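FIELD: query
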Amino acid sequence: MVADYVLMRYGIGAIMAVPGHDTRNYEFVIKYGLPVIQVIKDNSSNDQIPYIGDGVLINSGKFNGLTTADAKREIVEELHNSSSANFAINYKLRDWLFS
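FIELD: result
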């Protein structure tokens, strides 16, 4: 899903396009009647949508069955090998002077 606008409550940024795993994206797709595809399965029998925790990937092609931690690493490795991405760590210092 791609949007050319930002919802007022969403803040700065754009729609992340993971409605099965982000509450704000879920609200968006429900409002506009768009499909929701679950890609992370909870380790319990609970199929609650949106599910925002860790689990095992489903509906994710060759990444099916990987834990979310392993999948993140595998996906970035594949993107790195195709020269589409690189590993990075981003730090955010918020109000560090006033905290």
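FIELD: remark
The chain has a mean pLDDT of 80.
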